[in-house]
Amino acid sequence: MKRLQSLTVLSEIEKDPLIHAFFEGDHATFLRLLYRSGAEEHFAARLAEAVLTDPNPFARACAAGKAPSSFVRNAFLADLKMIARAINETPEEGFSYGKTSLPVGEWDENSVSRLDKYYASNGYGDWICHTAFRYCAPDRTLQPIRTPSSVTLSELKGYESEKAEVRDNFENFVLGLPYADMLLYGDRGTGKSSTVHAMVNAFADRKLRLVEIDKENILDLPLLRAMLAEEPMKFVVFIDDFSLREEDDRVSTLKAALQGSMEGHAGNVMIVATSNRRHIVEENFATRRDSVHAGDSEEELLSLSDRFGITVLFATTNKKEYLFIVHALAEEAGLHTECEQLNLLAERWALLRGGRSPRRAKQFIGYLVACERKGQPVRL
Predict the structure, then answer these.
(1) CATH class for domain 130-314?
(2) In the chain, domain spans
(3) What is the pLDDT of residues 181-203, one digit of tens each?
(4) Do residues 212 and 145 make contact, with C-beta atoms less than 8 angstroms apart?
(5) In the prediction, which pLDDT does 241 show?
(6) CA distances from residue 144 to 34, 53, 118, 212, 360 in whole angstroms, order as listed
(7) Dihedral of CA 343/348/354/360: which sign?
(8) Are 198 and 153 in contact, with CB atoms under 8 Å apart?
């Protein structure tokens, strides 16, 4: 195993200790890390994945719909050829590096052309591997969410008109048409957050990604928007379960971010918030009573929720809507409970659990499925 020439465009992949040992020709370290990671039969596949997801200048330019310079393109191709030669050589002790092809073909000029199209359609770097991220305030970075919600629109029962309104705005956003920031409000368990996640999953193949920011970090919204504006993707900045107090200095920051600042509305960033309140600022009536301009103060607070171009109410389900969701979920799960019995059990579940909602319906069906699969009686 000999030391290899240093990479140029793809130099970042050597930050992986295993790949670094491979390029350094450190056979003992390479094998130790290889066995520890369980990659002894598919090192080449791991190397190909590192190349595919590397945030290099070639990939970034292609993702942005731009043609990389001939210098970058040629250097990228030279790196690919060097890697191909290295993993196709017979290593010491007859060890095999595994399959050598990239996901888009062999390590050659044709592969470069296919990668160009791949990045243009899917983005580059971590944007390829993950659909959801969390903004971390201390170091101002985006961390991938390793297990994001996989909910789909077909799994969400009821609220058809509400979902249609949200979907229409999402579609406008990814198509580059006029769109609006959104506030989804209503009681707990009505599916507001799940709807947002399902929409992101539905449009993920159009380079849409979710970035969640905690309400405590709203003051960083301008910084976050500036970070995302530089990326060749579409982003939903998601603020879940949001509310503020009227004296909170984050009120003005959010108002500015919602199309009210001199920077205007960034074409690749849409802000979506969920809240249990239509007016997301909790009003302090004692302060209001003592205010000389109480009317002006109230208008200032209400104007925050009005900054969201679209507000969608997810109201609490009535009995008919609740039972419709229960039966839709039961049919999907393949339950055999009789209709009248299902209605009685569902109503009792709602009574014991504090009300009717899609969340309660889903929990109820999950309980019934578990009982049926285990052959146990339903006890409510």
Answers:
(1) alpha beta
(2) 11-127, 130-314, 319-374
(3) 999 988 888 999 999 999 999 99
(4) yes
(5) 84
(6) 25, 14, 21, 10, 30
(7) negative
(8) yes
